[in-house]
Write a structure and sequence with these properties.
The protein is α+β, with helices and mostly antiparallel strands and about 375 residues long. The chain has three domains: about 110 residues, Butyryl-Coa Dehydrogenase, subunit A, domain 1 (Orthogonal Bundle), CATH 1.10.540; about 110 residues, Butyryl-CoA Dehydrogenase, subunit A, domain 2; about 150 residues, Butyryl-CoA Dehydrogenase, subunit A, domain 3, CATH 1.20.140.10. The protein is about 50% helix and about 15% strand. A hairpin with a 2-residue loop joins strand 9 and strand 10. Helix 8 runs antiparallel to helix 10. The radius of gyration is 21 Å and the shape is globular.
Length: about 375
C-alpha cells in the first residue's frame, strides 16, 4: 500500500507535533500525578480544529480525511495518552456518530459546537452489567408523549464529568433484546442527570473516567438518534471508527516507549560502553521497531479503507488488537532497558506502561476484537 502523505497531511502532523511538544509535554507528568483534566489544552485542540477533524465545515469541523486524523492523534498520543483519548472519543465516537446518523436539526444543534471544540462530548454504552455484552442494557428510556424518560447508570465513561453532551444507549423495549436498544443525545444540565463516581485509575489519569446516573431524565423524542431500536447498530458502527483511534493511541505509546529506550540506551553505560552497543539491547530495539511498523500498517490500512468508503470494521479490529498488544510489550521492554530507573517515576516509561494497558480493554477488549475478526472469516 502507498502511504505517501500529502502536503496537507504532513502539515497537520507537524502542527499536532508542535502543539504536543509545546502545550502538552511540559505538564503531562504533573497532570498524571495529580489526575488533572487538561482543560486549557482541550480548548486549544478545539481552536486548532483537532476535535472535529473528519466533520464537514458546515457542521463545525475541518473536513479532513481519516489519515490526517490518525497522524494528528499519533503526535498527541506520543506525548500525552490522556489528551489523546479525550480527542479520540470526541472525534471518533461522538462527532462521527452524529455526522453519520444524526438529523439535520441534531447536527445544527449539537454537532457544530462539538466539532468546533466549543463543547465536549462523551459516549455512554458501558454499564455495570453491560460491558462486552453491550446488548444487556439496564438503562431504560420509556416513551412519554414527545419525550423519553431515562433511568439507569453508565460506567467507565471517558470525558463523562466534563462533557456537555453525552450519547446514551438505553433500552426502549427490553423484550426485543438487541433490537430494543435506542440511542439518545443527552445534555449535561438536564434535571436528573448526575456524575455518580470518578474512577481512580492505573493510567490515562488526567482524562476523566466516571459513572453517570440518570433519574427520570426527560429527553425530547427529537434527541433520539435514528429509528427506535437502532441503538446497538449505531453503537457498533461508531465503535468501528473508534477502534482506529485507540489503535492510533496504542501505536503512539509504543513509539514513545521506543524513542525513550533508544535515547536511554545511547546514554547509559555499562562496562565502559553504551548499552546500545550490546546485542541483547539491539535485538529488543529491533523487535520493537518492527512491531511498530506492522501496527502502523494495519492502522493506516483501516483508515484508508474508511476514507474510501469501503468496509473497514475487521481491519480496525485487527489494528486495535495488534497495536494494543505491542503498546504493552514495547512499554515493558523500555522499562527493562532502563533497568531500575524504568521502575521509578523520574523516567516516563513507567507511565507509558500504565497508559498502554487500557488500550487492550476499552472500546472492545482484545477478546472482543478476536470475535469480530473470527466472525468475518467464518461468515
Amino acid at each position: 500500500m502507498n502511504f505517501q502523505y500529502t502536503e496537507t497531511q504532513l502539515m497537520i502532523r507537524e502542527t499536532a507535533r508542535k502543539f504536543a511538544e509545546e502545550e502538552l509535554a511540559p505538564s503531562a507528568d504533573e497532570r498524571d500525578e495529580k489526575e488533572e483534566f487538561p482543560y486549557e489544552a482541550v480548548k486549544k485542540m478545539g481552536e486548532l480544529g483537532f476535535m472535529g477533524m473528519m466533520i464537514p465545515e458546515q457542521y463545525g469541523g475541518v473536513d479532513l480525511d481519516t489519515i490526517s486524523y490518525v497522524l494528528a492523534l499519533e503526535e498527541i498520543g506520543k506525548v500525552d495518552a490522556s489528551a489523546c483519548v479525550i480527542m479520540s472519543v470526541n472525534n471518533s465516537l461522538v462527532c462521527w456518530g452524529l455526522d453519520a446518523y444524526g438529523t439535520e436539526e441534531q447536527k445544527q444543534s449539537y454537532l457544530k459546537d462539538l466539532a468546533s471544540g466549543k463543547k465536549l462530548g462523551a459516549f455512554a454504552l458501558s454499564e455495570p452489567e453491560a460491558g462486552s455484552d453491550a446488548t444487556n442494557q439496564r438503562t431504560t428510556a420509556q416513551k412519554d408523549g414527545d419525550f423519553y424518560i431515562l433511568n439507569g447508570t453508565k460506567n467507565f465513561i471517558t470525558n463523562g464529568s466534563n462533557a456537555d453532551v453525552v450519547l446514551v444507549m438505553a433500552a426502549t423495549d427490553r423484550a426485543k433484546g438487541a433490537k430494543g436498544v435506542s440511542s439518545f443525545i443527552v445534555e449535561k444540565n438536564i434535571p436528573g442527570f448526575s456524575v455518580a463516581k470518578k474512577e481512580k485509575k492505573l493510567g490515562i489519569r488526567s482524562s476523566d473516567t466516571v459513572s453517570l446516573a440518570f433519574q427520570d431524565c426527560r429527553i425530547p423524542a427529537a434527541n433520539r438518534i435514528g429509528e427506535e431500536g437502532s441503538g446497538i447498530k449505531f453503537a457498533l458502527k461508531t465503535l468501528d471508527g473508534g477502534r482506529i483511534g485507540i489503535a492510533t493511541q496504542a501505536l503512539a505509546l509504543a513509539e514513545a516507549s521506543l524513542d525513550a529506550a533508544v535515547k536511554y540506551s545511547k546514554e547509559r553505560k555499562a562496562f565502559d560502553h553504551p548499552i546500545a552497543e550490546f546485542q541483547a539491547i539491539q535485538f529488543k530495539l529491533a523487535d520493537m521497531a518492527t512491531e511498530i511498523e506492522a501496527a502502523r500498517g494495519l492502522t493506516m490500512h483501516a483508515a484508508s479503507l474508511k476514507d474510501r468508503g469501503e468496509p473497514f470494521g475487521t481491519l480496525a479490529a485487527m489494528a486495535k488488537l495488534y497495536a494494543s498488544r505491542i503498546a504493552v510489550h514495547c512499554a515493558l521492554e523500555a522499562i527493562q532497558i532502563h533497568g531500575g530507573y524504568g521502575y521509578v517515576r523520574e523516567y516516563k516509561v513507567e507511565r507509558f506502561l500504565r497508559d498502554s494497558k487500557i488500550t487492550e480493554i476499552y472500546e472492545g477488549t482484545s477478546e472482543v476484537q478476536r470475535v469480530v475478526i473470527a466472525r468475518s472469516l467464518l461468515q
